[in-house]
Amino acid sequence: MLSLKHVSKSYQNGSEVTHALNDVSFDIESNQVTVILGPSGSGKSTTLNILGGMDRPTSGTVTYNNNFINTESDKQLTDYRKEIVGFVFQFYNLISNLTVFENVAISAQLENKKYRNITEKYLQKVGLLKRKNNFPDQLSGGEMQRVSIARALAKSPKVLLCDEPTGALDTETSKRVFEILKKSKSKDTAVVIVTHNPLVAPIADRVIHIKDGRVDKIIDNPSPLEVEEVDWG
Amino acid sequence: MRFLLKKLVRTVFKNWTQFFSVFLMAFLSVLFYTGLEGTWNGMKQNINHYTTRTHLATTTLQSTGLSENEVKQIKNLPDVSKISAQTEINTTTHLKGSKRYLAVSTPGTQQLSKTLQTNGQRINTKVSGIYLNEKFAQTNGLHKNSTVTVKFNNQPVKLKVAGLVNSPDKMYYTGSNDFISPQNQNYGYGFISDKTLMNKFKLPLLNNVIEIKDSNNQQVEKQIRKLIGKKYIALQTQKSNVGIATAVDRVGQIRNISILFSIIFILLAVLAMYTTIRKIIDQQQRDMATLQSLGYSNVILSLYYSMYGLLVGGIGALVGLAVAPLLSNFVMASQKPMFSLPSWKIAYTVVPLYVALGVIIICVLSALFAAQVNHGLTPAQAFRKGSTAKHGKRVLLERFPAIWNKIPFGNRWSIRDNLGNKVQMLMGLIGVIGGLALVMTGFGTKNSMDNQVDQTYGHEYVYAKKMNLSNNTSQSEINRITKQVHGEKIESVYSSLQPKGEFDRPLTILDSGSKIKLKTENQQKIKNGGVYVAEGIAKTAHIKKNQTIRLQPSFSDKTIKLKVKGIIKSSAPQGIYMTKKTWQDQGMTFKPTAILTSRHQIPQKIKNNLAVTQVVSLKEQKSNAKEMVNNLSSIFLMIQVFGILLTIVILYNLGSLSFTERSRSYATLEILGFSRNQIRNLTIIENLTITSLGWLIGVPFGYWFLSRYVTTFNTSQIIYYPFISTISIALASIIVVAAALSTVGMMGSRLKKLDMIASTKGVE
């Protein structure tokens, strides 16, 4: 589905060159939860940005269903983000002056004219339909992240990219968020979670360990645990 | 504090676009005031110096001619300290193939309204030549030792130019009451010695112009009237003498403009400073909380923010002071063709320094005031404030779901954001309203003046030619000429006006006819049975309709009492009017001074008739009046340019502030799949909404502002009514909307640099 082959990414910082990614290759499959695991500064966010069409690699190829993403124009990348990718942010990135409903609908209407029903469907799914008329500042952190997930799902993305989705949340709220994310995988949808928290690994179908800008190891997990079965410490 | 200062300088550089508007407003307010003060104060000092140095007379008496004994009696009046008796005659000459009009006068004692020579010998009684006024000589290619032949009573007199001079009572010289702007090539004045008058012009000393230094104009007027009776024509004070008053009025006009516009820019500087500092504080909330936690007190942090005002306001004010002489000289240069002054130096008082200081203090205070939002917060509270989500608020429009639900979500966001941020929105509105008002004023002032010219010389005066008559023309001769040209007669004299008339005003008596179509406020024509007063006089003399006023006209020792039948809504000239019948019913004799005709061609025979002193065409009068309007066009242009600049700067600043605040949200939208065009459209719609709202308020406000502003150009001779053409309103609107939309273009480049990746990180 989504494939990275020999991807490298370097940044020029004055006279210094930083190699954020170095010859990274892996595949993302639909109907799977893939966790990209690594410590801070390992290159996992850069990987996510390249997967999400927000950044281009310095070398290597990125393909989605055999179409090259890395060579596409800005407009094609915008379409890619619009049609293929859903993004869940660590700090939610909700628009403060739009209500819960409107925050989700602004994304849903990009792809579907019947956005009202879709918006309500996903708000129902994340358990926030009753709060649809609230503004973000009236929600807790967990609720805001659930709105962020509903917003990403409302576009029916083929790849749901989540950047440290529970990084700002407590354990109980995190569990709820992971449950929703885990349920979001389907035969059409891949879920990718980027995290530094190794406790998330057991719920994933595939875990890609990244260290110093390289893929350290890839572990496929034929029988991932349910969120409730994980010892969250 | 050292590191805070470094932070301050870096913040200013990083956010230079936002601080630029504060700088510009501070700069413009100081520049406008100081630049124009350099002009008006320079003119004022030059005029004062000129009038003091030349001992300008306080009043000038025009009479039909006085005996030596009468002159002596005037000199001995209790309120008179000095006099200078002169003889003035009107001559003509032919120069460069055209007829020129030259008022020739004896120099008097040269103790009052002394002439200043600019070239050649000083005026003395032994010289047999003529001293010409500088501008007339220059425009006609005359210089010292040139020869000029003047005609008086159809007799040529050859005179050598003895020198070039300027007279302080003719700083603004039109040469004829028929013109409102100088015609230096056609009208001039000159001085000849008493001896030359007697020998070459074969005239005795007439003493028809007496320059007087007195301590009480009104008392002197009464005393002189009593003394000379019917020989009295008019007493001009410095306030009513066009040659002096226009120059003094111009000082006041430029001063009013400088004050009015500086205040506008200062107000905008306050708004720009306040909103910019508020945004900087919002952006740097976590930095501030960190500094607080390190031990920096709120007082130090408040001082830190006030330093922004000091730095940016200070630089703006200093640059304004430095650039001001350029503006002063530019405006001064535009006044030179109109006035004759010996010096055109610009001059400043200490007030610009106070204005600059005031602007800096205002910037500092508005920054300090904006910084108070964090006052009293503990570091923990400040941290929380920096990381919590902004409050979302519903707006009134949401109560109308039929409308609200049709608005796209992106626009709902910007509507809520704008309405929730009143200062920012107000600033945007003020930018559009202020810009539109200034551009409308720039166009409208010219329109108003052009309209005055078109009204006066197109709708009120509808003759083709005006033939001025010699004083001693017989009634039969006047009737004969009138018949020949199918004309109509008018009599123009001066009259005192009681009560509160201040000085002698032009009084026009109209014979039957339709060449002068003046109307009252109620669109009534001038009818028999009362007197009509122009609106400007009515206002200054507090005259109301149906009030009884007393008039004492020229060439008469009678006082006539009449009811004011109407107030004439006319710009110029500001005079008193009545019909021939009303005039005669008061026992006065109708002695026409001019004949008006619709004929464009006047037979040469009539032109050569000694009874006709001058033939003036309405076309000439109109183009002369237009010249005066054109003389002010540099000021109109300046106002328009500043208006456009203001709109761009304020709206760009507003857009820039919003953009910085929303860049994270814009980046989020881009990640979600919004194209840059869609995001740009959000900014365009928002910009258009504010521009449209600003336009709706701006057009009536602009008209109101224009109506206030044009009154600053009013003089004792002309008052202006606000008028702006539909084309000007459309043009001003297009300019302002284009200026507003151009800021969207500038935003476009920032949109390209939108950092999607940074938006996925935490709030800083």
UniProtKB/TrEMBL annotation, chain A:
ABC transporter domain location: 2-231
Entry-linked Pfam families: ABC_tran (PF00005)
GO terms, molecular function: ATP binding; ATP hydrolysis activity; transmembrane transporter activity
GO-annotated biological processes: amino acid transport
Keywords per UniProt: Amino-acid transport, ATP-binding, Nucleotide-binding, Transport
Transmembrane feature ranges: none
PANTHER family assigned: ABC TRANSPORTER ATP-BINDING PROTEIN MG467-RELATED (PTHR42798:SF2), LIPOPROTEIN-RELEASING SYSTEM ATP-BINDING PROTEIN LOLD (PTHR42798)
Family: Belongs to the ABC transporter superfamily.
Protein name in the entry: ABC transporter ATP-binding protein
Organism: Fructilactobacillus lindneri DSM 20690 = JCM 11027
